[in-house]
Design brief:
Layout: E1 7-10, H1 15-23, E2 49-52, E3 59-67, E4 81-82, E5 86-91, E6 99-101, E7 106-109, E8 114-117, E9 130-132, E10 163-166, E11 170-173, E12 178-180, E13 190-199, E14 211-214, E15 221-228, E16 239-249, E17 252-253, E18 257-258, E19 265-273, E20 283-290, E21 295-298, E22 308-311, E23 315-317, E24 323-324, E25 328-329, E26 332-342
Antiparallel strand pairs: 1-16, 2-14, 3-13, 3-15, 4-13, 5-13, 6-12, 7-11, 8-9, 8-10, 10-21, 15-26, 16-26, 17-25, 18-24, 19-20, 19-22, 19-23
Length: 344
């Protein structure tokens, strides 16, 4: 589920191009002014607004609107040239599809190791005689007379059958398959705030050489300078905003994984008879076995023959796998900032 490596996503041209388009060609003197012969008095014939010049490395001034994307008004008639939008307040959740583990599949095989002991269960004390009563390789549970043990009428020296130990069923399970709930190919993002600049061409000049004639501020707009990067505001342009042209996206999800199956179970019933035909009337002992460990059964009375054996088909009950992964990693961070400084 790992997504693409860090990348920059943009929703407009590069910031420098944006600011150049919005604010002119790289100096404060971004507008064309015609001398109306007003003599340079206060206002000096400026048909718009005389705004303070900023430092030479700042672009502008121009009109700036700030609000929610999709709600931006048209640029005023006095400043009809619209700049590319820039953004702030990035909302970029990391969404990961849910990881799931499929149920495992498996099977159970009958054991072939059955061992008679000359002592009652567990029949493992030192000096106890162990006699194989093995089933044939690949035993399918059908009646078999393999490795019979004859009866002993008297247990002289203790060497007669008193218990029978049956090895556990053999459980085999395949790994669980992994499924991932699908999500969109690209993780979502929105910007909470958008800004758009507007500029225009005015006749007239200002009487103060430290001012420039710009389109007058309209409702909802501010008179602003801009500088590429994250900067402090100069002079009278004290209201600071930082907007971005895109973001660096390292969001991803950890890979889904499943543990080995746990909790799977097997069961079967093994019956032992004193004759060679697995006759119900000749039953010596019967017991349920599973895959957790050997089962010991006492033989009563002692010394009976073990002539044949029979087993039911093993029953398999699947376990489950523990799921992991699908955790969000990384983040999306705004990139390519520009600082907008506006008159109060």
């Amino acid at each position: 589920m790992t997504r693409t490596s860090a990348k920059i996503r943009t929703r407009a041209a590069l910031v420098f191009s944006v600011t150049a388009a919005a604010f002119g060609c790289g100096t404060n003197d971004v507008f064309i002014h015609e001398d109306t012969g007003s003599g340079g008095g206060a206002g000096g014939g400026c048909q718009g607004q005389c705004a303070p010049l900023g430092p030479v490395e700042w672009l502008g001034p121009a009109l700036l609107w700030i609000g929610q994307e999709g709600q931006a008004p048209e640029c005023p008639a006095s400043a009809p040239v619209q700049g590319s939008p820039v953004f702030a307040d990035l909302n970029s959740p990391t969404l990961c599809g849910a990881c799931k583990c499929d149920a495992p599949s498996g099977s159970c095989a009958l054991p072939t190791t059955l061992t008679a002991a000359s002592a009652q269960c567990p029949g493992t004390a030192p000096g106890v005689t162990q006699t194989p009563f093995y089933a044939p390789a690949g035993w399918d549970g059908s009646c078999t007379t393999a490795n019979p043990i004859p009866a002993k009428l008297m247990c002289l020296g203790g060497n007669c059958v008193q218990s029978l130990t049956i090895a556990p069923l053999i459980l085999t399970e395949t790994p669980c398959g992994v499924t991932v709930e699908p999500i969109a190919a690209d993780l979502p993002y929105t910007w909470g705030t958008m800004a758009r600049s507007c500029r225009g061409v005015l006749s007239g000049e200002c009487g103060n050489p430290n001012e420039v004639c710009t389109p007058a501020v309209e409702p909802g707009f501010a008179q602003c300078l801009v500088h590429v990067g994250d900067k402090e505001c100069p002079g009278a342009y004290s209201v600071r905003h930082v907007f971005y042209d895109g973001f660096v996206d390292t969001r991803a999800c950890t890979a889904c994984a499943c543990s080995a199956p746990i909790g799977g179970a097997c069961s079967a019933v093994v019956s032992v008879f004193k004759d060679d035909a697995c006759s119900p009337s000749a039953l010596v002992v019967a017991g349920t076995i599973d895959a957790t460990g050997p089962v010991c059964l006492d033989v009563a009375p002692s010394g009976q023959a073990l002539g044949s054996k029979l087993a039911t088909a093993p029953v398999y009950a699947p376990g489950a796998c523990q799921v992991s992964g699908g955790e969000p990693t990384g983040q999306a961070l705004p990139a390519e900032p520009s600082t907008y400084c506006c008159l109060p």
